[in-house]
Design a protein that fits this description.
The complex is a heterodimer of chains A (677) and B (441).
Chain A: E1 2-7, E2 17-23, E3 26-32, H1 45-48, H2 50-55, E4 64-68, E5 71-74, H3 77-95, E6 100-104, H4 114-123, E7 128-130, H5 136-146, E8 162-166, H6 170-173, H7 178-186, E9 190-194, E10 207-209, H8 216-229, H9 235-241, E11 242-243, H10 245-252, H11 257-264, H12 268-280, E12 284-288, H13 298-311, E13 321-322, E14 353-355, H14 359-365, E15 373-377, H15 381-384, H16 388-397, E16 400-405, E17 417-420, E18 429-431, E19 438-442, H17 455-465, H18 470-473, H19 482-493, H20 501-506, E20 509-510, E21 531-532, H21 536-542, E22 561-564, H22 580-583, E23 590-593, H23 595-600, E24 608-612, E25 617-624, E26 632-634, E27 668-673
Parallel strand pairs in A: 6-15, 7-14, 8-9, 8-12, 9-10, 11-21, 12-13, 15-16, 16-17, 22-26, 23-25
Antiparallel strand pairs in A: 1-2, 2-3, 4-5, 4-17, 18-19, 19-20, 22-27, 24-25, 24-27
Chain B: E1 3-9, H1 18-27, E2 37-41, E3 52-56, H2 65-69, E4 75-77, E5 84-86, H3 96-100, E6 107-109, E7 114-116, H4 122-126, H5 132-136, E8 142-147, E9 168-171, E10 181-183, H6 192-198, H7 208-232, H8 240-256, H9 275-296, H10 299-319, E11 324-325, H11 336-348, H12 351-374, H13 381-397, H14 405-426, E12 428-429, H15 433-438
Parallel strand pairs in B: 1-9
Antiparallel strand pairs in B: 1-8, 2-3, 4-5, 6-7, 11-12
Helix pairs in contact in B: 7-8, 7-10, 7-11, 7-14, 9-10, 11-12, 11-14, 12-13, 13-14
The chains are: A alpha/beta (677), B mainly alpha (441).
């Protein structure tokens, strides 16, 4: 048996360091890696599930060709590559390279993912996507205000005297964050949660502000008004480092307690108490989640919430920060998120872009050339992008689809050819994290199973077969062997003498640029060099108000329930849900509904009900949740429509107000008991 | 005294189930038979009450009831680590340990037909490592160490402390972080009765659909023993063939209830500690000796058989002594000793004793029904009436000089006893963490 150090490469805050036990080229165990100070006790249940995932009989190990709907048969690599090459050549000649859509998502992180872009560049370009499904509105709001997205080291959280979890549920989505939360509470720190749901993270909180979903900005502005009126603000900090406080003060004046109480549906006294807690506690770490910015008003909402940290001077101190995203370990990126999501920043070959939020609509509408060939890797857009039915239609409109994946998904079921994807144990790569500050090696611990080829090798073979010149391939696409991969990675490391593959093989490493308490030097890389409550760029780039403001969501009369699709502890987006170790706890999708809402519709716990709106319709098992705000229903993210109900059957392709994010939670549905149909 | 113990910090656990997965992966167990389970208090999220979790496997108790009660001696204690080890090759799959343990640690695996259980990762801890579940906990809520445990280490709501000295330290919720104060002006007060109605019903470990064989078996024991007693009193004949048929049926019924029929002989290995062993041993002795008596015709075998028979009746009642009763009463009208006596007095037909027994059983029965009604549990009034009539009708028939009178009376009595015995199982219950935590406060 051998033990390797590696890291979990999923799109998840924690990015745990783990130790892998390998015997006879088989993963037999996952153990904690205490050298990572952010994840010292080891990974969550999904991390443990890698033992099953790596050995699963369900895994796709050979290229597959579609023979009928939902039916695939094994083919040889030669047959698969020949078919793909023929289609690509034909597309390029007849319609031009931009008739190919190169769609890659966040299924597995790593620097080698850049090889895909290199390939398509050499191909002559391809249509790609801009924006992001997850967090750009908040990233952009933070960038506009503070100039950069970084926050205190995860372990600093235990120094906070007040932790304000605003729409984040770390107990399910960033479980190791609960370690410092509990340490802070042990030291009599307070925990307050804002969420329309009573989540596992709110269970040990002092209070839960169960506000009407999408009204977060109003609550923040109401609190800001209280802070200013009671003089619970940090004058010195504001004077030295903040731009636009006077205008902001004027703005919040209209957000009286009564008005905010009415908008957010929480009592006046509670808002006063919360303001007092924020204003009179020494060190507040404010932790907004990604969920609360997945509304159309998400960017402005984040700016409003961030203003609370700013006017109380809770930035750049131990135990005090705005804890949204920490991109410190992304040392290899020339352009960091969210700017890398914006159209215009890319290589000229990728000038033609469609919105990730409106993937279906854009794909159906795009002309000259239309998209004829779709390549999907590291993603499952049919279940993860909004409006599944429209995307399915767009996929079916194209002539040819190739999907690279480890398991069958909603998207592979639309593919003409499925290529087996490597898993995290079969090729080394370097990954960062957006929460912990480590650079890590996701180490190769075994040879690929079956006939699996890493994507770099697939591209290498395609490049050869398409007749790309050797000197073009060299430097862009590494040869398919371990030495070439290490050399490729070393190319990134050469600028960082403190990081080496040798060191990274042993465990997580910090880059020299790591700051435990960012902004403690009060350097804010904004246009003015100050924290910008008033941002001209906000107006210029996004057409929103220069000041943070509450922008109400559209009024609803047609649909009764607002559907939110938060992440669950059991999946990372649509990954892991297929494994037995997970299915034992969540065998199928449930729609969570407040029992009083359900009874009004004559629906009972455990019954199948119909959920529908203009985008889609599905039947789903209902589960009572007394912890929900009435009027909200919940279907967790990552369920796939080929298995039943999935949230994106009901979402609309809708971008957030800034950052080209995706407004998943701007979704309203109706419910119907099945026997009443 | 210091001993290896689990340490569970209720403040830290968020109910992620990593411990459950860590255990099953390490031990290669079936997902349907998880040795460790996360039990949740207030699953329904009753407003104002905390939702909290208990991750529980085997607590390797000092006075382990599984080990004490196992008739087949399938459990041993590893002296070095204190782990209670279940030996698969010795287990007969009678599931009696799953009733004896208040922590739901032994699990019956329908695929292997035997019980299995957490072994404290005895190999790992012998090597100085932590158990797999502890290693898997991502938030440090579950820990392991050498502790000198005190009673206050086990005081936390929902955790049963029966004095069996479980090797677990429970760190209860801090007063300040019990449950969040919910701010929501649209929240309405919800009727407690409604919440009770919405609460998912926990599954019963002792349920009539599984235990019907035991109903028949125990009534058969009472019948056979009273037959022998009445026979010795000279009140009734006893022939080999009918006796043998009922005996064989009774044995077949018990065997239906165990997983490994070829190991049935192990049933009697734990006479020292297990009432179940004593029951099977004394009943087998009763059958064997009665057999000798009927074949050889020696009355002394019969007298000896009766002694064994009486022991078996007492043992049967003692077997169920540690179950909790929904009615909460110490004596049940469906106890087999009482049934045995009822059969016996009818066979010897002494009216005054019959009256006395009817009075005792009847009042126990009616008293229980009233108490069930008072605590608003199901009490099946129509069935109760029928059962009461089954006690009374034979009494009214007593005066008639009808030839088939006794046979009909006995059939009616038998029907009444079957109802009572079935209710005995229906109203029996095993303490499980799931049930203890269901009551939300």
């Amino acid at each position: 048996m051998k033990i390797y150090s590696t890291a979990c490469p999923r799109n998840c805050y924690s990015t745990c360091s783990i130790k892998v036990r390998v015997e006879n080229d088989k993963v037999i165990g996952i153990d904690p890696h205490p050298e990572n100070r952010a994840t010292p006790e080891g990974p969550c249940i999904k991390g443990l599930a890698y033992v099953e995932r790596a050995n699963s009989k369900e895994r796709i190990l050979y290229p597959q060709k579609r023979i009928a709907e939902g039916k695939y048969e094994r083919i040889s690599w030669d047959e698969a590559l020949n078919a793909i090459v023929e289609q690509l050549k034909n597309c390029k000649q007849t319609f031009g390279p931009h008739s190919v859509l190169y769609f890659a998502a966040s299924g597995m992180s790593g620097l080698l993912n850049g090889v895909g872009a290199n390939f398509w560049k050499l191909f002559g370009g391809a249509t790609t996507t801009y924006g992001n499904l997850c967090w750009p509105a908040g990233l952009e709001a933070t960038r506009l205000t503070l100039g950069a997205n970084k926050h205190n080291a995860p372990w600093d959280l235990e120094n906070a005297k007040l932790i304000l979890l605003w729409g984040k549920n770390p107990a399910e989505t960033n479980i190791q964050e609960m370690i410092p939360v509990e340490k802070a509470q042990e030291k009599a720190g307070k925990l307050i949660v804002v969420d329309p749901r009573r989540t596992p993270s709110s269970e040990r909180a002092n209070s839960l502000f169960q506000i009407k979903s999408g009204t977060d900005a109003a609550l923040a502005l109401g609190i800001a008004r209280e802070l200013i009126q009671n003089d619970w603000i940090d004058h010195e900090f504001i004077e030295k480092y903040v731009l636009g406080f006077e205008q902001f003060k004027e703005r919040v004046d209209q957000y009286t307690l009564e008005k905010v109480s009415d908008i957010c549906r929480v009592p006046v006294e509670a808002i006063q108490e919360l303001a007092k807690e924020i204003g009179t506690t020494d060190a507040m770490t404010l932790i907004p989640g990604y969920g609360m910015q997945r509304y159309e008003n998400g960017g402005q909402t984040t700016r409003c919430i961030l203003a609370l940290s700013v006017i109380t001077g809770n930035i750049g101190k131990p135990g005090a920060c705005f804890h949204y995203a920490n991109l410190q370990s992304y040392v290899f990126d020339d352009l960091k998120e969210p700017e890398s999501y914006f159209p215009g920043c890319e290589h000229p070959s990728f000038r033609r872009k469609i919105s990730v939020a409106k993937l279906g609509e854009d794909l159906l509408n795009i002309k000259d050339p239309e998209v004829k060939f779709i390549w999907v890797e590291r993603g499952n857009p049919l279940s993860q992008n909004p409006d599944t039915n429209k995307i399915r239609k767009a996929f079916q409109k194209a002539d040819f689809r190739v999907v690279v994946d480890q398991f069958m998904t909603d998207t592979t079921l639309e593919a003409d050819i499925i290529l087996p994807a490597k898993n995290m144990f079969e090729q080394s790569d370097i990954i960062g994290s957006y929460w912990n500050p480590y650079v890590q090696l996701r180490q190769k611990v075994m040879e690929p199973a079956g006939e699996v080829k890493p994507e770099t090798e697939i591209y290498y073979l395609l490049a050869k077969q398409l007749g790309f010149a050797d000197e073009e391939i060299e430097g862009n696409i590494p040869e398919p062997n371990d030495e070439a991969i290490e050399e490729y990675l070393n190319g990134f490391l050469k600028d960082f003498p403190e990081l080496s593959l040798e060191q990274l093989k042993k465990g997580p490493q910090l880059a020299n640029s790591f700051e435990e308490i960012p902004f403690s030097d009060y350097q804010f890389p904004t246009a003015s060099g100050k924290i910008e409550l008033y941002s001209e760029m906000a107006r210029q780039m996004w057409g929103v108000d220069e000041l943070p403001d509450y922008v109400p969501l559209p009024e609803q009369s047609e649909f009764e329930f607002q559907l939110i699709s938060p992440n669950s502890k059991n999946r990372i987006h649509s990954q892991f849900g297929n494994l037995n170790v997970i299915k034992q706890f969540e065998p199928e999708a449930y729609l969570f509904v407040h029992p009083l809402d359900a009874e009004e519709k004559q629906m009972k716990n455990g019954e199948k009900v119909v959920i529908y709106n203009h985008q889609g319709r599905a039947e789903v098992k209902l589960q009572y949740d007394l912890g929900l705000r009435r009027g909200n229903v919940v279907l967790t993210n990552g369920h796939q429509s080929h298995l039943g109900a999935a949230p994106n059957l009901f979402t609309k392709g809708c971008e957030t107000d800034m950052g080209h994010g995706t407004a998943f939670h701007n979704t309203w549905v109706n419910l119907k008991a099945i026997n009443n149909e | 005294m210091e001993k290896n113990s689990f340490i569970f910090n209720t403040n830290r656990c968020v109910g992620c189930n990593a411990c459950v997965a860590g255990c099953s992966i390490e031990n290669g167990t079936d997902f349907r038979v998880n040795w460790r389970e996360v039990n949740t208090g207030n699953k329904i999220k009753h407003p104002g009450l905390p939702v909290f979790h208990f991750s529980l496997a085997c607590n390797h108790c000092e006075d382990a009831p599984c080990m004490k009660n196992c008739p087949a001696l399938a459990y041993t204690r590893d002296e070095k680590t204190g782990a209670i080890i279940h030996h698969a090759e010795a287990c007969i799959g009678c599931t009696y340990c799953t009733w004896a343990c208040p922590y739901d640690a032994p699990k019956f695996n329908p695929a292997t037909k035997i019980v299995e259980k957490c072994n404290f990762c005895v190999d790992r801890i012998s090597d100085g490592k932590r158990p797999a579940c502890v290693e898997a906990c991502p938030v440090g809520a579950l820990d392991f160490g050498l502790l000198d445990l005190q009673e206050e280490d086990r005081v936390t709501p929902g955790f049963v402390d029966m004095g069996i000295k479980p090797s677990i330290q429970l760190i209860p919720l801090r007063e300040a972080n019990m449950a969040p104060k919910v701010e929501n002006t649209d929240q309405v007060e919800i009727d407690e009765k409604k919440i009770e109605e919405w609460l998912p019903k926990p599954k019963d470990k002792v349920a009539l659909d599984k235990e019907w064989t035991l109903v028949l078996f125990t009534i058969a024991v009472a019948g056979l023993v009273s037959w022998q007693a009445a026979h010795l009193m000279g009140a009734i004949d006893m022939q080999l063939i009918p006796f043998a048929i009922v005996s064989v049926l009774a044995i077949a019924l018990t065997s239906l209830h165990i997983g490994k029929k070829m190991r049935m002989w192990r049933f009697i290995l734990n006479l020292k500690g297990s009432w179940l062993s004593r029951e099977i041993f004394s009943f087998s002795g009763f059958l064997g000796l009665t057999g000798f008596q009927l074949v050889i015709g020696n009355i002394w075998f019969g007298i000896l058989a009766l002694i064994f028979g009486i022991c078996s009746l007492i043992s049967v009642d003692m077997v169920y002594k540690f179950l909790t009763r929904k009615d909460g009463l110490p004596v049940h009208s469906g106890m087999v000793s009482l049934t045995g006596i009822l059969f016996f007095v009818w066979l010897i037909e002494v009216p005054i004793v019959i009256e006395l027994i009817i009075l005792i059983k009847g009042s126990l029965y009616i008293g229980r029904k009233i108490s069930l009604r008072l605590i608003r549990l199901k009490h099946f009034p129509a069935l109760s009436l029928l059962r009461t009539l089954c006690l009374l009708i034979p009494y009214f028939l007593l005066g008639t000089q009808w030839e088939l009178g006794l046979a009909i009376s006995l059939a009616i009595i038998l029907a009444g006893e079957l109802i009572d015995r079935a209710e005995f199982y229906y109203e029996s219950d095993v303490i499980t963490p799931e049930k203890e935590l269901r009551i939300t406060n």
